[in-house]
Amino acid sequence: MNRRAWVRLDNASNIFLAARSDVDPKVFRVSAEVDHEVDPELLQRALDTTFDRYPLYHSVLRSGIFWYYLQDSDLRPRVRPESQHTCAPIYFDDKRALLFRVIYHRKRIMLEIFHALSDGTGALWFLSDLVEEYVWLRSPEAAGTPGGPKLEIDQGWGSPVARGIPAPEPMHELVADSFSEHFAGKRAAGDEPKPQSGDGAARYALREAKGALRPKGGRVYRVRGTRTPDNRTRLVELTAPAGEVIALAKAEGVSLTMYLTALLLDSVNRASGGLGKARTMGVSIPVNLRQHFPSTSARNFFATVRVEHRFGEGLDDIGSICRDLDEQFRPQATREALEAKVQKLIAFERMALLRIVPRALKNVILRQINRANNRGLTVALSNLGNVRLPGQAEAHVGRMLFHVASVRPQFCAMSHAGELTISFTSPFVETDHVREFARRLTEAGVHVTVAATRVTEQELDEQQRAVVAP
Amino acid sequence: MQLEGAWARCPLCGADAAAGGAGASGVAVARPDPLPSIPLAFSRRRLFRALFLTSLAMIVLSLAAQLLFSGQQGAPGALRIVWLAIVTLWLVTIMAVRKRHNLAKGTLYLVVIVSAMSVYWDYLTGWHGWSLSFTIPIVCGSSILALMITVQLTRIEVGDHILYTVVTVLLGLAPIVFLVLGWVSTSIPSLICGSLSVITLALLQTTRGAEVRHELKKRLNV
Q1: Long-range contact set of residues B146-150: C-beta below 8 Å, sequence gap at least 24
Q2: Is A291 left (phi over 0), alpha (psi -120 to 50) or beta?
């Protein structure tokens, strides 16, 4: 009798289930651009091999009475040409399906993942192994055997407190999450007593969420726009020489992440046509916990930090915004601060009475927390850092890209082979803030290339006409 | 600034995108589009959802309306039969669409929906007890048999159906309760259904007891 391995969903992932929607199905994509048109057959073979090494990726998501859990399956993934819009939903209630897909288009190999399965770093491990295997299959005689030096992610330039992640031998099994490993059973210093009733627990959770995310500097500006016709994510990719942009960040004395964040806030401000009374902009920045708490798990292991800037009070030039954000970010991204924050969340999750609240009700509570969270945010961003691929893959891969579906304007950055890619996603048709962002960069002398998805009927019709009558 | 892909206008500033070199706008097409054009797809989904929600609302309103006219002069009569039949048909269709990924869960939902509808129907038409005497035992008994056959013939994992099967079988014990309470006019359907449930439960306990406990442990994990 085949009794399936299963493991409970981690602390961070439960929110993805509760917060997913048509607009934001909680899917993200990491892509690698190889130096030739992708061969689907070889990619399938590479996927088969890589998939066998990642039991975590075999799992499907099931729902218990109280929690979701991941369960092993016999399903096998098939590579497909890109035929759905970017970050299309992966998980559907009651549908037994793998939580990721591998797709290709021209030179791109793309991995899309439902966020409850893994985070950006975990996904990057899978993608790099896949690409390494693919490159090896393409020319086995020239490239030796796969399994050379492991992927390196240098987040040192991305985050002011980050250190490069030492080439790990990641754990790909369906195992307990790193949150339990590092934080379970510990209590954050100064923790107040937890409420004992279910209803009190919900109120406590909301208060905690609001407290943690409440803007300090007044009403938060939120970007509005026209929703895309079929809820697809509007994606705009900017590619620029990494060195040139890093030089700009260095000139301001901050990390690349802080520089790009400041640039984004400035761009949103310029594109807004006046902020009105809501002159504070809140930003959510995920921090990879593997930097501080050793983990080889490919499952989610990150925490988010919130910073903000209030326009119209003091200086609003890029340098001033940079320093304002940096001063807020640094103390929040230390090991101690992150530990305290995550322990609080874990303690909340493990509250005895909350545990016995049925899953459906927990989802309602988590959705409310997520709403409270969203009200305090203008934009979000995520920086995967500078990546170095293993083996021969390094020489055959150019740009690498990363983006997520989002309910608010967001950008994701990563860098490979000297090219920095900044992928903007938004649920809106408008791209005004991206235009301003690109302008700021080009004005600073950076050469920028733009790619974008077509989201409106007009854009798609124009493309159709261009194909019919070239 | 350069553009990737053949854009008639720059997707950022709306300026004309000149192929082959930077035009007055400074926008030029540099490389083939790395992102494919995916046709719009979701208007269908929105329509489907609207249809789905409208159907549910109509069903609820219909049931309420039936209740309102119950026992009044000029009650719908034969029209009610058609009405309730249509409502039941829709409910079953909606259930089948929603729960199409798990046959066992679908069967359980079917038993609940059809049983509840028949009791309501019986109540509206003057309460003759046919729902408890015949419909529920027949629906429960047939579902147990159908489930037993389905899980043997289709590739459905034990873990995926065992709990729903157990609940369906437990529901099959309800007609015995009706019988004991004296709510039924004819005892044979209830006796057959009850016996079938008891036999199946005993069978499940001996052959699948460990799986049931394993599934319960997973799903009741707090």
Answers
A1: B146/B107, B147/B104, B147/B107, B148/B200, B150/B103, B150/B104, B150/B107
A2: alpha
The distance of A442 to chain B (nearest Cα, Å) reads 7
pLDDT one-digit tens code per residue, A381-438 = 999 999 999 888 899 999 999 999 999 999 999 999 999 999 999 999 999 999 999 9
Contact at 8 Å (CB) between A96 and B160?
A: yes
Q: Is B218 on the interface with A (CB under 8 A)?
A: yes
pLDDT tens digit sequence for B175-200: 999 999 999 999 999 999 999 999 99
- Within 304-333 of A, beta carbons closer than 8 Å to B belong to none
% of chain A with per-residue pLDDT over 90? 55
Nearest residue on chain A to B40, judged by CA atoms? A230
C-alpha closest to that of A24 among A404, A434, A285, A437: A404
B120 CB-near residues (< 8 Å, 6+ apart) = B63, B66, B84
pLDDT of A114 higher than 60: yes
Q: What is the pLDDT of residue B140?
A: 94
A383 Cα to chain B: minimum distance (Å): 21
- Classify burial at B192, counting beta carbons within 10 Å of its beta carbon; exposed 0-12, middle 13-18, buried 19 or more: middle
Give the CA count within 13 Å in the CB-facing half-sphere of A42: 15
Q: Is A466 on the interface with B (CB under 8 A)?
A: yes
Q: Is A442 on the interface with B (CB under 8 A)?
A: yes
Q: Is the pLDDT of residue A110 over 60?
A: yes
The rounded mean pLDDT for chain B is 82
Q: How confident is the model at residue A452 (pLDDT cuts 50, 70, 90)?
A: very high
What would the two tokens of residue A365 be?
């509570």
Q: Does any CB of chain B come closer than 8 Å to the CB of residue A434?
A: yes
Instruction: Spell out the residues 6+ positions from residue A11 whose beta carbon is closer than 8 angstroms to its own.
Output: A177, A179, A342, A345, A346, A349
pLDDT at B150: 83
Answer whether residue A234 shows pLDDT above 80. Answer: yes
Contacts of B39 in chain A (CB under 8 A): 460
At B202, the pLDDT band (50, 70, 90 cuts) reads very high
B36-65 residues touching A, CB cutoff 8 A: 36-43, 45-46
Euclidean distance between CA atoms A199 and A236, whole angstroms = 43
Q: Is A357 left (phi over 0), alpha (psi -120 to 50) or beta?
A: beta
Percent of chain B at pLDDT exceeding 90: 26
Distance CA A221, CA A269 (A): 9
Contact B12 A86 (CB under 8 A): no
Backbone φ, ψ for residue B87 (5° rounding) = -60, -45
Q: What is the ipTM of this complex?
A: 0.76
Using alpha carbons only, give the angle A172, A174, A180 rounded to the nearest 5 degrees. Answer: 100
CA distance A100 to A47: 12
Provide the number of CB pairs (under 8 Å) joining chain A to chain B: 127
Is there a contact between B34 and A106 if contact means CB atoms under 8 Å apart? yes
Per DSSP, the residues of A316-352 read: -SHHHHHHHHHHHHHHHTSHHHHHHHHHHHHHHHT-H
For chain A, the average pLDDT equals 85
Q: Kindly report, residue by residue over A122-152, the tens digit of the pLDDT.
A: 999 999 999 999 999 998 776 566 666 677 8
The residues, any chain, with a CB within 8 Å of residue A375's CB and separated by 6 or more, are: A213, A220, A222
